[in-house]
Design goal:
The chain has seven helices and six strands; from the N terminus they run αββααααββααββ. It is mostly helical. 23% of the residues are buried. Helix content is 47%, strand content 10%. The longest helix is centred in the N-terminal third of the chain and has 26 residues. The model has no long low-confidence stretch (mean pLDDT 78).
Length: 221
């Protein structure tokens, strides 16, 4: 058995998209500093920082894995077409089907609208979901304990509601607006199925739902 590497050269547009997302994740680190969760790179609230970092790193790993896989698809599709022309039957193995992401989006849409969807199920949704629900916007104040050790703690107003760091909120909103303007990069499996049609693909995965392109409309199957 021989193995050949299929190399995909990123286009200028893809490089720009990748750089924009990299910059976005770098800004999240800055937001943690702005919230006084860290100071000069040092953790002031260990528990809060550990939870935030764990969520952040997990999201970042999933996102870039999906993004890079999706960006390689144009070369993969050309390779599949070449194999089909030679009467071969290509078998493609993909790590993720993005089913969890799809199901979260479908929960927000009435089922009677599933026959003509206009939704964006792409790796971008991972970072958008993080920005909307996990971006560190709560304000932390710095204080010293009896031993003179510096810590930070959450700030609450007179009604015992968390106080938001307006600098971090502005960062989050600017990032959401910036990333929403980037071209969508569809998930890898969706690109393959939509290109060759769901009738030509024998999908062997564990997912219970998928999006298909039929009669010019995006539908749930």
């Amino acid at each position: 058995m021989t193995v050949d590497m299929l190399e995909h050269e990123l286009t200028d547009e893809q490089t720009g998209i990748y750089d924009s997302y990299s910059e976005a994740y770098a800004v999240i680190h800055t937001a943690m500093e702005a919230s006084n969760m860290t100071q000069d790179g040092k953790a002031l609230n260990t528990n809060s920082r550990s939870a935030a970092i764990s969520t952040f790193e997990g999201n970042k790993q999933r996102f870039f894995n999906h993004l890079l896989t999706s960006m390689k698809c144009p070369s993969l599709i050309r390779s599949i077409e070449h194999d089909l022309e030679r009467d071969h039957a290509p078998v493609i193995q993909i790590v993720s089907t993005s089913e969890a992401l799809l199901n979260r989006r479908l929960e927000q849409i009435p089922s009677d609208e599933w026959n003509d969807l206009g939704i964006d199920i792409t790796p971008r949704e991972y970072v958008m979901d993080y920005l909307s629900h996990a971006f560190p916007v709560q304000l932390f104040e710095v204080y010293e304990d009896k031993k003179g050790i510096t810590h930070s703690r959450s700030v609450y107003d007179s009604d015992d509601k968390p106080v938001l760091n307006q600098e971090a909120v502005a960062m989050r909103d600017a990032l959401i607006e910036q990333l929403a303007c980037l071209p969508a990069v569809p998930a890898a499996l969706d690109q393959i199925i939509h290109h060759f049609s769901h009738e030509a693909i024998a999908e062997v995965t564990g997912r219970g739902t998928r999006l298909i392109l039929e009669d010019g409309a995006l539908k749930v199957q």
